[in-house]
Inverse folding.
């Protein structure tokens, strides 16, 4: 069951399928068993990129750093 349509937001933001897969991989590490929180955080990342609050590179770096440091 899907909770959020993050794929549409990703397309609108110009995020490639490969980059969306990387965002999803990084977020899934933080929410391995909670699909709703996983989708919400992927959606939030895509919206931040779409709204130009973060570049794709900044979002990926932030997600990777947060996971690596446990933040």
């Amino acid at each position: 069951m899907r909770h959020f349509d993050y794929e549409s937001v990703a397309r609108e933001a110009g995020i490639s399928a490969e980059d969306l897969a990387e965002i999803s991989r990084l977020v899934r590490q933080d929410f391995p068993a909670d699909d709703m929180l996983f989708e919400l955080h992927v959606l939030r990342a895509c919206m931040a990129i779409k709204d130009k609050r973060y570049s794709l590179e900044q979002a990926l770096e932030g997600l990777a750093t947060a996971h690596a440091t446990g933040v």
